[in-house]
Amino acid sequence: MGITLQDVECLLGLPINGFAFLGLRRTVDERDHDFLHALNWTLLDEHLGRPDQFKIKELFPRNPEQQVQPNAGWTNREVEQYTARVIYGYLAGLLFPDSSGRFAPTDFVSYLGDFDTIANFSWGSAVLQDYLVVYVGHPFE
């Protein structure tokens, strides 16, 4: 017995129809630009495990003074960036962590700058593929 795309759709509520998510291999400068543009986050070396792995704990600071809280005076752009951070936290922490649970890929951050576009991807198939590679060790038999 195995897990299917329909299982992912039913259990996680993720779409399985849409564009294939192939990820993007970005240069360090492109990755840093994506984080700044989409999340308003300036990446530092201590935020990363490897150049393509973001430390999940950085999204959720333990110190209350460091936690970002929504503000009624924010511009639309600031609201979009905050929302993108929350979505990245969900994707990174729950759907795409590595096998240690400490790191998440930086590949899909560039998609978070455009909410209309990311809604058209088959996130369910991306999660299933990631699960098969990370936890089972191979995507296909």
Architecture overview:
The protein has two domains: 1-21 and 121-140, no CATH class; 27-120, no CATH class. The chain contains five helices and two strands; from the N terminus they run H-H-E-H-E-H-H. The protein has 141 residues and is mainly alpha-helical. Strands 1-2 form a two-stranded antiparallel sheet. Helix 1 (5-12) crosses helix 5 (123-136). The model has no long low-confidence stretch (mean pLDDT 83). This is Aminotransferase-like plant mobile domain-containing protein. InterPro entries: MAIN-like (IPR044824).
Our estimate of the beta-strand percent is under 5%
Number of strands: 2
How far the N terminus sits from the C terminus, by CA atoms, comes to: 13 Å
The count of domains is 2
Count of discrete alpha- or pi-helical segments spanning 4 or more residues: 5
Quick one: biggest sheet? 2 strands, antiparallel
Helical proportion, percent range: 40-55%
Taken in chain order, the helices and strands follow as: HHEHEHH
Q: Over the alpha carbons, how many angstroms does the gyration radius reach?
A: 16 Å
* pLDDT < 50 stretches: none
Q: Give me the secondary-structure category.
A: mainly alpha
Shape: globular
Strand order of the largest sheet: 1-2
Mean pLDDT: 83
Protein name: Aminotransferase-like plant mobile domain-containing protein
InterPro entries: MAIN-like
Organism: Cuscuta campestris
SSE arrangement:
Layout: H1 5-12, H2 28-39, E1 53-55, H3 76-95, E2 103-105, H4 115-118, H5 123-136
GO biological process, one term: meristem maintenance
InterPro entries: MAIN-like
Protein name: Aminotransferase-like plant mobile domain-containing protein
